[in-house]
Amino acid sequence: MAMIWGWSRAFLCSFGDCDPVEWGGGGCVPPNDTLKLCVLNGRSLAALHNGVDRGDWTVEAPSSPANTTSEPRTGSEQYTMPSGLRFATYYQEYRKLFSATCTLDYFGVLATDRSEDLRCSNAELEAFEAGLAAASLGSVTKDRKQSGVAYLIEGENTWMTVVVVGKDLLNVWVETSVLKKP
């Protein structure tokens, strides 16, 4: 957990100090959408694209690399949730490893004046934590800092870091690594 806080300290500090007890407000959309898109389905491109097929979200121009045999296969995709919030996913895929970062289009939310979607009550954040635990992806470890909270989820072949930062407005992103079975 120290590594996630170490490399992203400058990014986290850009949001100012926050005390999660002070988070309050209305409808908390980012953690719900993050849980559904990035956490539950962000472990493979196939899962993300199956969500498109089910109508759970839309994707703008799915990536298809010119040379599918080269490693790593890299790309990025923009997903839009039914709530209207957008997420960017950046991935690298090797024969035995899939790595992805899924981030909320934070500035896009601010530009469209939907900042109410970024305000979360303590109860909503607790529900998000319960959702992480209920997802049964592995053990969940929580690391609380002044800038926010990071969750490390360790599964059999999956390592995931979910970072929630902010004071008045919440931002989230997820880093995932999956060791694929041969």
Task: Describe what you observe in this structure.
The chain has 182 residues and is α+β, with helices and mostly antiparallel strands. Helix content is 28%, strand content 33%. A hairpin with a 5-residue loop joins strand 2 and strand 3. Helix 3 packs parallel to helix 6. The longest helix has 13 residues. The two termini are 28 Å apart.
Reading side by side through the largest sheet, how are the strands ordered?
1-2-3-4-8-7-6-5
**Number of DSSP strand runs:** 8
Rg to the nearest angstrom? Answer: 16 Å
Cα end-to-end separation: 28 Å
Structural class: alpha+beta
Contiguous low-pLDDT stretches (5 residues minimum) are: 1-26
Which strand-content bin applies to the residues? Answer: 25-35%
Number of helices: 6
Shape: globular
Instruction: Kindly state the percentage of residues in helix.
Output: 25-40%
Query: How confident overall, as mean pLDDT?
Result: 78
